[in-house]
Structures are given as structure tokens and as C-alpha cells.
Amino acid sequence: MIRLAHGDTVLGIDPEVGNIPLWRVGGRHPLHAAPWRGEAEVQEDASLPLVNRRLAGDFLCMPFGRDDVEDDPIHGLPANTRWEVTREDVAHAEFRLLARPRGATVTKRVQIVGPVLLQTHVIEGGAGEVTLAHHPMSRMAEGGRLSFSPKRAALTDPQPQYAGHNLWALNQLRGDLHLDREDGGQWDLHEYPAGHRVEDFAILVEARGATLGWTVLMRNAEDDMLVVLKDARLLPVTMLWVSNGGRDFSPWNGRHTGVLGIEDGCAAGGIGLRGAIADNRIKAFGVPTTIGLGPRHVIPHAMVSLPRPPGWSEVVAVTQSDETLTLTERSGATISVPFPDGHFA
């Protein structure tokens, strides 16, 4: 484990798969690590992809989800193979992926600045088209509430994550953040479905012309906020993975509860790489669902962990200027934290 520290923040990075099993900010633990990471029988089960055996925190997916073009493991080589440390300081580390997915060189820069976790992936060379996404996960003991930057559409996949265990109806395309349920009701995507044992997935398409995209998760029992930030021009969709006890097979065994993945990417949801390369519902908006390898791609991403101010229930704006990130609640109240202007150039 590579350990970084700054102030009261500690970060742990697992170079075997490039994920983040530990991010502690004061007494807060914003990210989730699967309960089976320490179980020998799971870690020795070669039938499970390494990304699932070591499931934790955040990691780079390339491609995102199923690779039905070259048959790489789910979420690609960056999530399943070793990263070499090329530079390490107290609060900053750089890595290079030893594998070369589709001939590309992939490097990772990670830095913590107080409650801010900065990541940048640089992808150089290679050939072909791929999807990609970050895969941060947070766990809630008693659910939570979500706020989003403006979206132009919400979609669900044509096929379920796990048949018979989805709350949201399949193959939807909505112009707002309300999804039809399988039972005929509706679901507001601002709420985590804490009272339902489900495995669900939705895709949110960023508003036209957006630059800074964001999601804010307010966890109820934990009484904190996780802010997830992206360059919406590079990662035009946000995919929400709800894993709340719906998977009853190993290693999940119904115990993976209260988990939400906030997966910002250039992808087409869970339809596989072949479907993302072809015409699809998201491309119909004029939104790319793959990147072309060969040129140099620089993908910045950031997360911020904050206590929830008393009375806050919905964030309506997140803005960045003058080395500061400012969140605005619907009441008009604001909170600001230092944030480097150059990260999202």
C-alpha cells in the first residue's frame, strides 16, 4: 500500500490494481472498500476478476464495464493489473500502468490537499476506440441524498445489472431525474433507495455546453458530504451504480449494502464496448461514448470530503475561481474550500 498524508488526511493506494482502499479525512471515511478484501477464499478465487476481488475506493476503468471487443477483464487492464510507482512524496504520487491496454501508455497522478483528492490520468498512444470512467464508491449506513450539476437526460440500461433485482424499469430515456419503477411508481434520483434490496444502474447525460460537472452525496447517518468533480467536456456522462444487497451470489452474498458508485465517464452505460462504439441512445444527443486512442488524453478528476453544514439538504451550484471551490445550498448558504485553479484547465 502506498500511503500519502496531508494535515488530518490519509490516503492509501493499492498499486496491484491502482485503486484507493483508504481515504480518511479527520474522522470521515468517504470511500467504500468491499468487506471481502481480507478474505483468503475470495482473494484466491481466480474465477473472479481482480477488480472485484480487490473492490475498493476509486479506480480507472478502460474500457468501462464489459470488453466485448478484445475480451479484456471487466473494467479493463487499468483496474486489474499492477501500477508501478514512478514518483512518491508525502502527499503526492505518480504511477505507470505496467500493461499497455491496446498499445497505450497510461499514467496516474494522485495528490491530496487537505480534504481534496486530486487525480489525473494521462493516456498516450495506442489504437482503437475505448470507453473509460472513474469508479468512486461510497457506502451509507442509512441512505443519503444526491445533488447534481444540470443534466439533459436520465437513462437506464436495456438489460439489468442482475435480473429480477432492479427497482428502476429498464430501457428508459427521461428528460428529468425521475425514473419509472418496475412496480409502476416513480423514483426521484436525488434519493438513494436505502429501503430496497436492489442492484440498479442509471446514466445521466450532462447539460449541453457544461464544463465543470459535479455530484454531491450527503450521507444521512455519517452527516457528511462527498463532492465528485469532473471535466464534463471529457467525461460527459455520470453513471450511478446502486448496490444495496441485491447480489446474492459470491462474493457479494447479500452483504454489499448501502453502496453507491458515482462513475463519471465517456461511455454508454452497461451495454458493453461494442455498443458504445456503435450508434446508441447517448450518441444520439451528440455526446461521445468512446475516445480514440493515439492522441494524448489528459483526464482530470477530483473529490472533496466535507462535514455537512447544519440544515443542508440540496446543493444547487458548485463553482470554482480564485483557488477556491464554493458550494451553494438551495437556501443560499455557501461553504468554500481551497482548490487549485489549474486542475481543471
How does this model look, in words?
This protein is mainly beta and 345 residues long. The protein is built from 3 helices and 24 strands. 4% of the residues lie in helices and 46% in strands.
Order of SSEs: EEEHHEEEEEEEEEEEEEEEEEHEEEE
Look at the helices and sheets and give the structural class. mainly beta
CATH class: Mainly Beta
What is the architecture at the second tier of CATH?
Answer: Distorted Sandwich
Number of helices: 3
How much strand content do the residues show?
over 45%
The tally of strands reads: 24
Mean pLDDT: 97
Helix content estimate: under 10%
CATH topology: Beta-galactosidase, Chain A, domain 5
Largest sheet: 8 strands, antiparallel
Give the count of structural domains: 1
The shape is globular
Separation, N- and C-terminal Cα atoms: 30 Å
| Uncertain spans | none
| Radius of gyration, whole Å | 19 Å
What is the topological layout?
Layout: E1 2-6, E2 9-14, E3 19-25, H1 40-43, H2 50-53, E4 60-61, E5 83-88, E6 92-97, E7 104-113, E8 116-130, E9 132-134, E10 137-139, E11 144-148, E12 151-155, E13 173-174, E14 178-180, E15 186-188, E16 198-206, E17 212-219, E18 224-231, E19 237-244, E20 259-266, H3 273-277, E21 291-307, E22 315-321, E23 324-329, E24 334-338
Antiparallel strand pairs: 1-2, 2-3, 4-9, 5-6, 6-7, 7-8, 8-21, 9-20, 10-20, 11-17, 12-13, 12-16, 14-15, 16-19, 17-18, 18-21, 19-20, 22-23, 23-24
